[in-house]
Write a structure and sequence with these properties.
Blueprint: H1 2-30, H2 39-52, E1 69-73, E2 78-81, H3 94-100, E3 104-109, E4 112-119, H4 124-175, H5 192-247, H6 253-287, E5 296-299, H7 302-310, E6 316-318, E7 325-328, H8 330-347, E8 352-359, E9 362-368, H9 390-394, H10 403-413, E10 417-422, E11 427-434
Parallel strand pairs: 6-8
Antiparallel strand pairs: 1-2, 1-4, 3-4, 5-7, 8-9, 9-11, 10-11
Helix pairs in contact: 1-4, 5-6, 6-10, 7-8, 8-10
């Protein structure tokens, strides 16, 4: 605010100087000796002096009337003048004075006209002088107003407009999540205190974000730890179930069948829990940035070997694999293909066709079933984390919505791509696998 008061004082001084200037100019206009005197009075004085000193030569007119005039005799010859010869019109006479509107009077002696006096000023010079002075006065006043406006504008721009724009830009960056943005601290502008408040707000937001990130990391680490720990009891359940199934061999057939069905159900539920925990574990590792892939060159025939390992129901029909070398992580590729086949088992339960072809620098592996598929507005969402389509949700089949998400993430880490397609007659997943 100090600068603001300085500007106001400066403008006040300029305004006062302007008033003084107007006063001086006005006085100069009204004090113009000849412009505002009665020309008739001056003319009479000159005429009177000429009558008294007609025969005195150079002493004809002794007073300085501060105006140009000529005294003519009866023959229109110049008897006396106080101006330069070039300023006297040619053939000066009373008739010329009448035409040019010069004030004139006759010089009389003994009631006889012996000559005439002509003042060489018809008023135009006074008017021009006054006009020029008025123009100068108006121009000076305008310049003072413009100068004051420029000073106010400069102050507003520096101390209000620019700081406000900086705060607006800073707030926009903060709203977008860019907490690295900085706001210049300036005590001189009107928003100095607001600037400091904005900076304090930014620091608090940074601390809150750091606390949130740390908390999320701890939560993910806890989920990863629990997922890993759950693997041990699940493995124990499966091993115990397999042991019991082995001991049923050779027992009563009806008894063995009854208990074998129950053990198969236990094994099935254990597998479901195992898959769910595995998916949750992989998803958490991805959030923590801990998933790594080890790429190596493999013959494309390994893809059919992977399919055979996961095709428990023998529903997959594979075309002959191409003789190309692909660059993959064999274990991670098994997870991708296993997730796709498992999804097809759960939601389609139909034949699954697998086709291969080379597309640019990729081996395209298309895995297609003939189930209900997904709607066109959901096709781009099914690879999102925890997303389950309407049809799959209504099927009452257990699922986590992580299978295709993890598969897409792993394909990306292996420099490939996963593309889902659905035409209303099944779901097709195309894997673009990079060639070596």
């Amino acid at each position: 605010m100090k600068n603001y008061f300085k500007i106001v004082i400066a403008i006040g001084i300029i305004y006062i100087l302007g008033i003084v200037g107007v006063y001086i100019f006005s006085n100069s206009i009204y004090s113009s000796d000849f412009s505002f005197k009665d020309k008739t009075v001056i003319l009479n004085e000159i005429t009177k002096s000429a009558e008294l000193n007609w025969d005195s030569g150079e002493e004809l007119v002794q007073d300085d009337y501060e105006c140009e005039f000529v005294i003519l005799d009866n023959t229109s010859e110049v008897k006396y003048t106080n101006c330069n010869q070039e300023n006297i019109p040619e053939r000066i006479s009373v008739e010329t004075a009448i035409k040019q509107r010069f004030p004139y009077a006759y010089v009389l002696k003994d009631d006889k006209c012996i000559g005439s006096v002509i003042i060489l000023d018809n008023g135009t010079s006074s008017i021009n002088s006054m006009r020029n002075r008025m123009l100068l006065l108006i121009g000076s006043s305008g310049l003072l107003i413009i100068l004051g406006a420029l000073l106010i504008g400069a102050y507003v721009n520096k101390n209000i407009y620019k700081p406000f724009n900086q705060m607006e830009e800073f707030a926009g960056k903060i709203a977008e999540g860019d907490l690295s943005a900085s706001l210049v601290m300036d005590k001189e502008n009107m928003f100095g205190s607001f600037t400091e408040s904005f900076d304090i707000m930014k620091e608090e937001l940074i601390k809150a974000r750091e606390r949130e990130i740390a908390l999320q990391k701890k939560e993910r680490e806890l989920v990863a730890s629990l997922s890993h720990d759950l693997k041990t009891p699940i493995t124990g359940i499966k091993v115990t179930t397999e042991l019991l199934q082995a001991k049923l061999t050779g027992t009563d057939e009806s008894f063995a069948k009854d208990y074998n069905d129950k053990l198969q159900n236990i094994m099935k539920k254990a597998d479901q829990i195992d898959n769910l925990v595995s998916d949750l574990f992989e998803s958490t590792l991805d959030d923590l940035g801990e998933i790594k892939v080890n790429l190596s060159d493999e013959d494309a025939s390994v893809l059919n070997d992977i399919i055979a390992r996961y095709d428990d129901r023998k529903l997959v029909r594979c075309s002959e694999s191409l003789s190309v070398i692909i660059n993959i992580d064999l274990r991670r590729m098994g997870q991708v293909i296993g997730n796709i086949i498992s999804n097809s088992y759960k939601y389609a339960n139909t034949v699954i066709d697998v086709e291969y072809k080379v597309v640019d620098d990729y081996l395209s592996m298309r895995i297609r079933d003939y189930g209900p598929g997904v709607t066109s507005d959901e096709i781009g969402l099914i690879t999102n984390k925890f997303y389950r389509g309407k049809i799959t949700s209504e099927s009452k089949v257990d699922g986590s919505g992580l299978g295709l998400y993890i598969s897409k993430m792993l394909m990306t880490k292996m420099n490939g791509e996963l593309i889902p397609e659905s035409d209303g007659n099944g779901l097709a997943i195309t894997l673009l696998i990079p060639l070596s």
